[in-house]
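Hi all, long-time lurker, first post. I run a small reading group and we've been trying to get comfortable going from sequence to structure in the token notation. Rather than ask abstract questions, I figured I'd post a concrete chain and ask someone more experienced to write out its structure so we can walk through it together at our next meeting. Sequence below, copied exactly:
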Amino acid sequence: MTKEAPCAAILLAAGLSSRYRAQAEAGASSKLLAQVEGRPLVRIVAEAALASQAQPLIVVTGYERENIEASLAGLPIHFVHNPDYATGMASSLRIGVVNVPQNCAGTIVLLGDMPQIHARLINQLIDHFATHEAARALVPVFINEQGQRERGNPVLLARSIFADIAHLSGDQGARKLLTGAGVVELPVDDHSIALDIDTPQALAQWQSSLKRERA
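-- Answer (accepted) --
Happy to help. Here is the structure in token form:
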């Protein structure tokens, strides 16, 4: 990858947050709108992406489109809407890659419920991709306390895999494409690649950990 072929970023922010809302108080909004220290989760992820080398940032909306867009007001973002968001993540990913500029060699795919991902990890993936031009995808891998390998997010998808994404369906995203030749694993010392905010309890635990870190 060269300066003439940058790497975009796609932020998937279209989901129904079904599990989160089922466990939250009646009438709860999308988990992506949950406030942490004055910022919605989705904005925390977007700002991390914008602080990285990835450009442009494409945000795919769906459920609660207007509120998601309002929560990201003022940021240099290209919004695209997925009217089929209820069918699962694959439909959002398909729309996202279609909107990646032609001059981009690939794209980082970020999930809106993973606010612990930092710009440095995104840059690490992009830098590694620059030295693996034949890679179809890069996947971060973390060794947990039990010595087990955990794959996580975000992943980097090269343009050469975009055509395969067009045939995906359901809620698995690009997972079934991330095996075989051309898929490169990048070891990282960052357990946040496997941590998402999927329930109100997970959100409360993360907020508590932030308070302890600042104490």
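A couple of things your group might point at:
Residues 106 and 159 are 5 Å apart (CA to CA).
The two ends are 42 Å apart (CA to CA).
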